[in-house]
Write a structure and sequence with these properties.
By secondary structure, the protein is α+β, with helices and mostly antiparallel strands. It has a single domain (8-49, 63-85), classed as Roll (Ubiquitin-like (UB roll)). Helix content is 15%, strand content 36%. The strands form two sheets. Strands 2-1-7-4-5 form a five-stranded mixed beta sheet. InterPro entries: PADRE_dom.
């Protein structure tokens, strides 16, 4: 009991467009994911907090998320969150 968080962190997490979450326990190449999901590209979700100012933080200063498209030869690493997207 209490070890499930460690197991979740030791996976590659892929969010599919329909909301399905796929967890893989090893690193893999983006090309493998794209081959099994034709018409989709893999993007990593980059989360960052805005720079803090002297004023108090408000609801508008929430965490910022960016998507960065991966090349087919890029590796999906354990512990990161990825999303399948299409154009």
């Amino acid at each position: 009991m209490g070890n499930c968080q460690a197991a979740d962190a030791a996976t590659v997490v892929i969010q599919h467009p329909g909301g399905r979450i796929e967890r893989i326990q090893w690193s893999l190449i983006a090309r493998q994911v794209m081959a099994s999901n034709p018409g989709h590209y893999v993007a990593i979700i980059i989360t960052s907090e805005p720079p803090t100012s002297r004023s108090t933080r408000n609801a508008a200063a929430a965490t910022v998320k960016h998507l960065k498209l991966l090349r087919p030869d890029d590796t999906l690493h354990i512990g990161h969150l990825y999303r399948l997207i299409s154009f």
